[in-house]
Design brief:
This protein is mostly helical. It has 2 domains: 30 residues; 69 residues. It has 3 helices and no strands. Helix 2 runs antiparallel to helix 3. The radius of gyration is 24 Å and the shape is elongated. The two termini are 25 Å apart.
């Protein structure tokens, strides 16, 4: 029975690279990927749409806002929610597809 040493070398190299990345992460030297910045920005924009809708409803309750502003803000919030739900569904679908892939 032959022993395959190439996989042991690969595992050792992975361990060293992993240790180096962990040290950089602890030191704070690793930058977040650009994709996470886009996701963060999208989430912040999504939250701002709901904040605007909440503000419009609060203003209407105080007698300061118009019904039209509330309806417009609620329509934008509904559209944003539908968009986020669609994105979530597609991400889950993609993840499930990855899980079904043969290894």
């Amino acid at each position: 029975m032959a022993l395959d040493l190439s996989s042991l070398g690969a595992m050792q190299g992975y361990g060293q690279a992993s240790s180096a990345n962990m040290a950089k992460a602890i030191a704070g030297d690793i930058q977040a990927p650009a994709d996470t910045n886009a996701v963060t920005k999208a989430v912040e924009e999504f939250a701002s749409v709901f904040d605007k809708a909440d503000g419009a409803v609060s203003a209407m309750a105080r007698g300061e806002g118009s019904a039209q502003a509330v309806v417009e803000a609620m329509a934008q919030a509904e559209l944003a929610l539908q968009t986020v739900v669609t994105i979530r569904d597609r991400v889950i679908e993609a993840y499930q597809e990855i899980l079904r892939m043969p290894v």
